[in-house]
């Protein structure tokens, strides 16, 4: 059994996922973590003694090993590592919703302090692609930004939604690092510098990513799933009712291959084999795990796995020694083997008994007393059908899953559907009341997004009074674009937006794509088709010229982008240029952009007033204190009353400022999304060109150019 | 003293019942004892006992199944079959010399040399039977463990006296296996996990000690005494239904202390049988027979990388593998046949019912129900459905992924639809359910094990109108009581069935005699209920007006259903409302202060970090900081406690005026306002004025 080699109680709370280890003097590793009240603490047990306190750094009075760093903002992420080219020690990087601070702990000096409008939800430090210097890459609201040691903005791109996790790893195997980005739209995207290499759809917010080895990486989702990918193929995953707070690759059993270490919200830590997900070690904290890092904390040349809990408990584990033979748990191999074999034997015996009893009944016929057994005709089959249903008075538009048995005497007691991403939980249950029992059950399904879904259906089939039911298990696939109805309301207005591009493929291939990705009752044979979008309303028109020019007409800009991406991947198109025009959306975007300007100017104005006020405060305070020393109590009182009023004003202004800031952030996010959407009309190189060009246009405040790029895909005409 | 026990599995048999394994006594100098056990397949064997003529080794094996008792010699030869002529099957048995004691659900029978001696009809279900050793006591003293929290001590066919215990006793065992010096010491275990020792003397019971179940472990299933520590004093071995095995030692003052704790989580639910020299032998519901041995397990690491297995284990593994292969072949054939039958139009598919070990019990300390389900093979998923609003609480021990589904309460009457997808190798599931008094219906659990062909079995659990009430033995007569009186043309059996419908822990069988009185206590509020009824007349008294209101509603509804004309009269005691409020007051105040303190913890901690220490804070705040961990734990233990109290106060308010014929639902918002700025006097004033 593996036991921790050291345990510390730090008496400081630790914010989840904000833990790192930095060698700030180049030698001694220090555990660094964000704590309450906008502070970061650095635990340095190696150089005890008085250190000067100045600038940001102050000694904690509770514990001489801990120094506290005042950030005065709510910390949202932090990391440490080598940033500068000629520095010996690590640089600490702390991100908040508005700023990024690079700080040299050893010299007690800021390296740079940058304002980042999109915030920093996640940070990673390292080399990316061909960029020479290491970058501190932050992920914010739909945007990714990379800074070098001088604070120069060396890398910028947009992504689909708010970034929640980042990791650098050599995904393509070309010897250079790619950036993996997990975001709130459930996608893991891979960037080779600013080019999107690939994306993998998950079914929840991706909260953590970590590099295992080679092209293999681990991930964790907000719904309690952890797993391992190798490139785009998922190796394994498991789901728990708890949430994974932190994941880390570490070779705990010393077999030369790293394991995925997961820290859970209930305080559990487990190590899982990277190949199978089998648990090889587990331990428990009394409170939720905050972060897992590694470092040579005892300075004896061995790297330890360091786990921290939100209550400030720290445990260090050494990799298992050779004698343990990779057996970290308190169990005996032979006992496990025997237990496993016996269990299998037992299962087989039980299954055999089922068949024997079944045969007995088949011979003797069904007697009345056995009706509880849930006897059904052996040829009972379950039929399932999917169909699109339009909205009615009582029900929203949905896809209807019809499950029925042909036998009159059997009923469906309940239907369980396990599917990812379309229900609130992971399952949906239909359990008719006793009066409504029949051989047919209709399940309305409303997928919230255009994603292909596997429906794992379990239907309990039996007699009306039985207590035992046969379970029928069926898997049906819901196509990606299922919420689109062929029955078009003739009075509906024509869509104004459209995207047009040319392909070199036969129309049959496009028809094939249509049949596979839409829910069409009897299939179609021409690529010209009109749908009624049930989720957002409005029409979707797809048409193809003999020349190979395809037009998607819709007012839903996201849908158009999804269609282009889906078709391009179906036809394996590497580069695709397109023209797009969405007048309604472009008008909105224009408004948003002018609002951004407005908010910016308001922001500046407010900052100016605040500076004025703080000058006032200073004066007032001096006057008040003077009066107090003079013993002039009337004036003192007056001044302090004024000071109180001023303070109230300041608070009010702060509230206005923060509201203004929030509004500004929302606008900036939608601008970033617009760029991302413009990119999604194109594939491959044209896509990257569009994104870069759009950003340049925004930087230069050239709105007209921006729209032009979004329309035709390039800035030059 | 520390005790290290290692687990050794011997074999897996079918599903086993409670008290089903015994070790044969050693004969001569034979070193090891032989375990004897019986399992479910075939006709279900409900008990197994060892017996023999007094003074000789107890090595005759007695088993009971159905209403029959059979006896075998230790070589396996059957020498006795005895039909007890009971209408129900036997569920408890004790053998002592030529005396045989058997119990069906409510009936106790004593046979001597297979001749009927005594007979007794118990008021509630009999869980276990025991007889003090005749050799030491000199007379036959049978003791019945009954579901209504009473040990009944008999003399012949009559009740000698009752011994009240705090929970429904499930198991009885003689202390030290011989009842101590005087043979009068009896150990008992209860369904809610308590353990006690009582001395059954001629004149009356003397309770030596009782252990509370503070850690909320499972109910006691079996007890034994054996010196496992090896210090010359016998220890008490306890097996619980959540798979825990405990060893208690007795210290100098004969008080039990916990010596060893081993949560056998991989084997769950079980019955501890007897033990070898240095071993605790256990069987579990799922059929595992394993031992906890004091000998350290020998791990021989050979020169190679492989861990050497002992020759014995290698043999076992090889044998098992062989068996597996054969079985697999057979199963394949079976599967094929089954597939073929699906082609025929006349064949039927009928899969036998698998056995589920389930328990649905009220937990006293947090006033919620705990549901445990156990199946012999791994559970794949569980569907919970309820037609009454109930809350499903998270249980730490439960690792299954729960998912709540949308409920269509209008068309299909579902108020809860939840699925549990279990992790591999989960054979036991534990859930917690919180009910609301006055709302009643059925909770259904569909259990689907990982077994081909896949089937799902449904289990139903009643949520009764007064679901949070529990039987007690005495009630406080001084409380101000509200009364409800029903008169009309109903039989004793009818009124009893209505009471069974309304209240938990009432025996289903109509009690003997003309009239009956039951006492109950509300586990959440501590208010009490006295139910006394006979033919044509029923009286209910409670200090909680809501309890009376619920009873009135349910009973009148039931009577209407059966078209019985009821004359309902009630008497509301004005003081009772204030009394109930005063009973709630300490709980409410405690919860409010706790909530307030917990709210402050984070802010105070931040201040502490900011200032470097907590010296500047006033003592009150400093104490909050010092106790923060304890406070948080307390707060976590009682989720939604405050909301429940608020709900009950609101009910009380509405019910009080309902009896006056006023509808005060419009004033509820005002009440909630008062609760938010809670003060006992203002609340009482509000109740009195409104």
Automatic annotation (TrEMBL), chain A:
GO cellular component: BBSome; centriolar satellite; ciliary basal body; ciliary membrane; motile cilium; neuron projection
Domain Ciliary BBSome complex subunit 2 N-terminal: 20-126
Domain BBS2 platform: 487-571
Biological process per Gene Ontology, one example term: non-motile cilium assembly
Domain Ciliary BBSome complex subunit 2 middle region: 165-272
Location relative to the cell: Cell projection, Cilium membrane; Cytoplasm, Cytoskeleton, Microtubule organizing center, Centrosome, Centriolar satellite; Cytoplasm, Cytoskeleton
Domain BBS2 C-terminal helix bundle: 685-711
Record keywords, A-Z: Cell membrane, Cell projection, Cilium, Cytoplasm, Cytoskeleton, Membrane
Pfam families assigned to the protein according to its UniProt record, in alphabetical order: BBS2_CtH, BBS2_GAE, BBS2_hp, BBS2_Mid, BBS2_N, BBS2_pf
Organism: Triplophysa tibetana
Domain BBS2 GAE: 395-481
Origin superkingdom: Eukaryota
Keyword Nucleotide-binding: no
Domain BBS2 hairpin intervals: 583-680
Presence of the UniProt keyword Ribosomal protein in the record: no
Family annotation (InterPro entries): Bardet-Biedl_syndrome_2_prot, BBS2_CtH_dom, BBS2_GAE_dom, BBS2_hp_dom, BBS2_Mid, BBS2_N, BBS2_pf_dom, WD40/YVTN_repeat-like_dom_sf
Main location class: membrane
Name used for this protein in its record: Bardet-Biedl syndrome 2 protein homolog
Automatic annotation (TrEMBL), chain B:
Keyword tags: Coiled coil
GO BP terms: intracellular protein localization; non-motile cilium assembly
Ranges for domain BBS7 platform: 469-571
BBS7 beta-propeller domain segment(s): 29-294
GO (cellular component) term, any one: BBSome
Coiled-coil regions listed: 310-337
All residue ranges annotated as the BBS7 helical hairpin domain in the record: 574-687
Superkingdom assignment: Eukaryota
Coiled coil is among the record's keywords: yes
Domain BBS7 GAE: residue ranges: 352-461
PANTHER family (UniProt xref): BARDET-BIEDL SYNDROME 7 PROTEIN
Name by which UniProt lists this protein: Bardet-Biedl syndrome 7 protein-like protein BBS2-like protein 1
Organism encoding this protein: Triplophysa tibetana
């Amino acid at each position: 059994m593996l036991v921790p080699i050291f345990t510390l109680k730090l008496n400081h709370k630790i914010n989840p996922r904000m833990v790192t280890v930095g060698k700030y003097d180049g030698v001694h590793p220090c555990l660094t973590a964000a704590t309450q009240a906008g502070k970061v603490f650095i635990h340095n047990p190696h150089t005890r003694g008085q250190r000067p306190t100045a600038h940001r750094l102050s000694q904690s009075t509770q514990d001489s090993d801990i120094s506290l760093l005042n950030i005065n903002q709510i910390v949202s992420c932090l990391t440490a590592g080598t940033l500068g080219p000629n520095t010996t020690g690590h640089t600490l990087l702390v991100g908040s919703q508005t700023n990024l601070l690079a700080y040299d702990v050893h010299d007690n000096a800021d390296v740079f302090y940058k304002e980042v409008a999109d915030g920093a939800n996640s940070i990673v430090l390292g080399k990316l692609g061909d960029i020479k210097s290491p970058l501190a890459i932050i992920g914010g609201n739909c945007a990714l930004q990379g800074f070098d040691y001088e604070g120069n903005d060396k890398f910028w791109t947009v992504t689909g939604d708010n970034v929640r996790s980042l990791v650098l790893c050599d995904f393509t195997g070309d010897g250079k690092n790619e950036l993996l980005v997990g975001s709130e739209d459930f996608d893991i995207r891979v960037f080779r510098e600013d080019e999107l290499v690939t994306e993998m759809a998950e079914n929840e917010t991706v909260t953590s990513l970590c590099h295992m080895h080679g092209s293999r990486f681990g991930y964790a989702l907000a719904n309690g799933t952890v797993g391992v990918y190798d490139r785009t193929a998922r190796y394994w995953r498991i789901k728990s009712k708890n949430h994974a707070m932190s994941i880390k690759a570490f070779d705990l059993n010393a077999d030369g291959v790293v394991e995925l270490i997961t820290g859970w919200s209930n305080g559990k830590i487990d190590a899982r084999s990277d190949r199978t997900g089998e648990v090889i070690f587990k331990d428990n904290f009394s409170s939720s795990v905050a972060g897992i890092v590694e470092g040579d904390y005892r300075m004896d040349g061995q790297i330890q796995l360091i786990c921290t809990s939100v209550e400030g408990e720290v445990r260090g584990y050494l990799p298992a020694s050779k004698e343990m033979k990779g057996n970290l748990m308190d169990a005996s191999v032979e006992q496990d083997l025997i237990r496993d074999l016996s269990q299998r034997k037992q299962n087989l015996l039980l299954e055999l008994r089922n068949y024997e009893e079944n045969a007995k009944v088949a011979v003797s016929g069904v007697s009345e007393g056995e009706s509880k057994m849930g006897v059904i005709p052996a040829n009972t089959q379950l039929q399932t059908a999917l169909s699109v249903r339009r909205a009615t008075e009582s029900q929203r538009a949905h896809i209807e899953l019809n499950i029925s048995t042909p036998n009159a005497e059997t009923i469906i007691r309940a239907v369980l559907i396990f599917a990812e991403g379309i229900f609130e939980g992971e399952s949906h249950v239909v359990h008719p009341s006793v009066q409504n029992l029949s051989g047919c059950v209709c399940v309305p399904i409303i997928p919230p997004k255009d994603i292909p879904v596997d429906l794992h259906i379990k239907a309990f089939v039996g007699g009306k009074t039985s207590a035992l039911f046969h379970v029928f298990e069926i898997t049906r696939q819901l196509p990606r674009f299922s919420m689109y109805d062929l029955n078009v309301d003739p009075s509906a207005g024509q869509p104004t937006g459209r995207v047009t591009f040319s392909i070199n493929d036969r129309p049959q291939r496009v028809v094939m794509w249509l049949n596979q990705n839409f829910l069409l009752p009897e299939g179609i044979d021409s690529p010209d088709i009109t749908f009624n979008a049930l989720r957002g309303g409005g029409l979707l028109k797809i048409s193809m010229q003999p020349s190979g020019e395809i037009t998607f007409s819709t007012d839903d800009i996201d849908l158009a982008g999804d269609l282009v991406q889906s078709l391009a991947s179906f036809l394996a198109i590497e580069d695709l240029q397109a023209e797009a025009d969405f007048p309604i959306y472009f008008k909105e975007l224009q408004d948003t952009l002018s609002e951004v300007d407005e908010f910016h100017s308001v922001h500046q104005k407010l900052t100016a007033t605040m500076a004025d006020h703080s000058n006032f405060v200073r004066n007032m305070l001096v006057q008040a204190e003077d009066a107090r020393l003079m013993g002039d109590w009337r004036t003192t009182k007056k001044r302090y009353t004024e000071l109180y009023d001023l303070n109230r004003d300041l608070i009010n202004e702060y509230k206005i400022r923060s509201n203004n800031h929030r509004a500004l952030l929302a606008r900036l996010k939608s601008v970033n999304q617009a760029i991302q959407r413009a990119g999604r009309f194109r594939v491959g190189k044209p896509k990257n060109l569009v994104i870069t060009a759009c950003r340049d246009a925004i930087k230069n405040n050239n709105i007209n150019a921006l729209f032009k790029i979004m329309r035709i895909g390039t800035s030059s005409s | 003293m520390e005790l290290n026990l290692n687990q050794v599995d011997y074999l897996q048999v079918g599903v086993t019942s409670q008290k089903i394994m015994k070790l044969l006594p050693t004969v001569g100098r034979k070193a090891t004892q032989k375990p004897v056990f019986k399992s479910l397949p075939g006709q279900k064997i409900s008990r197994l006992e060892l017996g023999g003529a007094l003074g000789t080794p107890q090595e005759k094996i007695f088993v009971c199944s159905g209403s029959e008792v059979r006896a075998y010699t230790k070589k396996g030869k059957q020498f006795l079959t005895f039909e007890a002529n009971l209408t129900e099957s036997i569920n408890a048995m004790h053998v002592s010399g030529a005396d045989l004691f058997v119990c069906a659900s409510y009936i106790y029978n004593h046979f001597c040399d297979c001749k009927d001696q005594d007979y007794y009809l118990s008021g509630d279900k009999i869980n276990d039977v025991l007889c003090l050793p005749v050799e030491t006591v000199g007379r036959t003293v049978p003791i019945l463990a009954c579901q209504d929290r009473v040990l009944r001590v008999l003399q012949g066919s009559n009740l000698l006296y009752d011994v009240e215990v705090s929970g429904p006793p499930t198991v009885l065992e003689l202390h030290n296996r011989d009842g101590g010096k005087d043979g009068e010491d009896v150990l008992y275990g209860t369904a809610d996990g308590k353990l006690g020792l009582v001395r059954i003397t001629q004149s009356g019971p003397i309770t030596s000690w009782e252990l509370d179940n503070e850690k909320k472990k499972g109910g006691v299933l079996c007890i034994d005494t054996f010196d496992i520590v090896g210090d010359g004093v016998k220890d008490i071995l306890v097996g619980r239904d959540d798979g825990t095995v405990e060893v208690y030692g007795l210290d100098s003052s004969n008080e039990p202390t916990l010596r060893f704790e081993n949560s056998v989580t991989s084997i769950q639910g079980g019955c501890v049988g007897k033990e070898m020299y240095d071993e605790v032998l256990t069987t579990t519901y799922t059929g595992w027979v394993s031992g906890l041995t004091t000998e350290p397990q020998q791990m021989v690491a050979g020169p190679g990388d492989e861990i050497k297995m002992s020759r014995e284990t290698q043999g076992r593994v090889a044998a098992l593998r062989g068996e597996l292969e054969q079985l697999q072949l057979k199963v394949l054939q079976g599967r094929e046949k089954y597939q073929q039958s699906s082609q025929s139009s006349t064949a039927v598919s009928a899969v036998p019912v698998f056995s589920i070990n389930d328990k649905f019990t009220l937990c006293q300390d947090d006033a919620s129900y705990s549901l445990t389900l156990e199946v012999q093979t791994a559970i794949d998923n569980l569907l919970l459905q309820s037609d009454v609003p109930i809350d499903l609480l998270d249980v730490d021990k439960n690792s299954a992924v729960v998912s709540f589904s949308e409920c269509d309460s209008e068309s299909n009457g579902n108020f809860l639809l939840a699925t549990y997808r279990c992790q591999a190798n989960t054979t036991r599931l534990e859930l917690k359910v919180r009910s609301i008094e006055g709302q009643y219906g059925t909770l259904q659990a569909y259990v689907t094990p990982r077994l081909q062909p896949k089937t799902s079995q449904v289990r139903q659990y009643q949520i009764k109108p007064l679901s949070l009430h529990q039987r007690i033995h005495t009630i406080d007569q001084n409380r101000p009581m509200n009364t409800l009186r029903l008169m009309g043309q109903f039989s004793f059996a009818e009124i009893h069935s209505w009471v069974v419908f309304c209240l938990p822990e009432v025996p289903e069988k109509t009690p003997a005699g003309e009239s009956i009185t039951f006492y109950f206590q509300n586990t959440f509020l501590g208010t009490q209920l006295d139910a006394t009824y006979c033919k044509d007349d029923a009286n209910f008294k409670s200090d909680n007006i809501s309890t009376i209101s619920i009873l009135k509603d349910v009973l009148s509804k039931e009577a209407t259903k059966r078209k019985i004309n009821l004359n309902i009269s009630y008497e509301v005691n004005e003081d009772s409302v204030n009394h109930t409020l005063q009973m709630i007051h300490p709980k409410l105040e405690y919860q409010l202060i706790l909530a307030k303190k917990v709210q402050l913890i984070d802010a105070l901690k931040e201040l502490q970090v900011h200032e470097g220490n907590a010296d500047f804070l006033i003592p009150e705040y400093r104490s909050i900081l010092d106790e923060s961990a304890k406070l948080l734990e307390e707060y976590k233990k009682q989720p939604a406690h405050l909301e429940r109290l608020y709900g009950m106060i609101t009910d009380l308010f509405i019910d009080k005026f309902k009896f006056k014929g006023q509808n005060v639902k419009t004033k509820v918002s005002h009440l909630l306002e008062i609760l938010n700025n809670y003060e006992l006097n203002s609340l009482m004033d509000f109740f009195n004025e409104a």
